[in-house]
Input
Amino acid sequence: MKFSRHSPDRRDFLQHYVLGTAAAGLAISSTSHVSAQTVASDAEPEITNDVDVLVVGGGTAGHVAAIQAGRAGAKTLIVERNSQLGGTMTTGGVAFPGLFDAWGRQVIAGIGWELVRESTEMDEGAFPDFAKVPQRHWQNQIYTNQFLYSLLAEEKCAAAGVEIAYYEFPQTVTKTDGGWEVECIGFGTRRLVRCRQIIDCTGGAEVVGMLGFPRLREDVRQPGSFLFKLDTAHAPGREQVHRLYVHGADSTNSRTATSANLAGRKSILEKVRKEGKRLMHLQPETGFRESYRIEGETVVTVNDYTSGRVFDDAISYAFYPVDLHTKTGVKPKPLKPGTVPTIPFRALIPKGSRDIIVAGRCVSSDQLANSGLRVQASCMGMGQAAGVAATLAAKAGTTPLEVPLSEIHSLLHEHGQIIPGQG
Output
């Protein structure tokens, strides 16, 4: 029997089906109710925001930067092209962040650690003993419930007064006397953002690239990873999941990211058919390890990183092996005992720029140094420093590089971050 869209027969059929399932005890019902907040002029496609700080990218560094800026008193907007905050931790599924400790003591704290700690405590998860030096670095990574993490990140943004704009991304960025005008596009939305400072947390320094500042990238990049689980249900916050290398993974643009996702999903489907096991968990996209990095006022070299150089303008510690993934896998090169790298503030500033700062894996560094700097805890530390510097610059009507380092350190310390050389 054929049914037209509005035919009485179709309506009767659906009524009969629903009533029949209800009689069988299978009625579909909602156990709770929630209403989305009405947005002023939500039918209007064009919106204007006047803010102090615009954070582009809500990933591992971006949401920390936004929360920090909001808590420090800056009117802040965060624009994220996907549907949630957390980036690699949540959308990518690498929900075992590290490393917050080195050689028996915690070296990175602040807002990122606050989120990891609270989401783990809420999930009744376990913490490693930072007082003990593990035999393998991954033993001090913290299994985190990625779903709780994303919810808490949104809650903390709201508490800090940070506005979130999902499904949007900048199309044009124009310098003005007072800062920037940024045109963002989302489906059904055109947003003009007037801001004093921009924090680029896109992973590939995409805003920096739009502005024409130099960026660095190797011809051969590390493979991405697609995370999934076969056979048994995934237990978030309790285990790592399976992973599949996606060679040639490139997050430069929508086309290359699409290609990486299609290749990863195709390989996982082939694996399901070959092994005859149920697919129990699949992350929505590839986790990308590297793309573009900025050429900053300082470039961190692998020698800087592995020697534990304490930069004069250090704003955060980092701690992870040199961790370069290739087609044959990865053989991490641990740091020598007692070595704790630092991240210089000037590595977050695109060379020759004003009123823009970056945070995350696009930090100014060579490829080998970046393979250690790109992990979550380090990116969170950079994000918090960028949030502080952008806020202070916006309030003073200057650019981040002209903000006294003592003021950046003081505000970071006030918000729980550990400053290299200061305990």
Summary: Residues 7 and 13 are 10 Å apart (CA to CA). The two ends are 76 Å apart (CA to CA). DSSP finds ten helices and 18 strands in the chain. Confidence is low (pLDDT under 50) at residues 1-26.
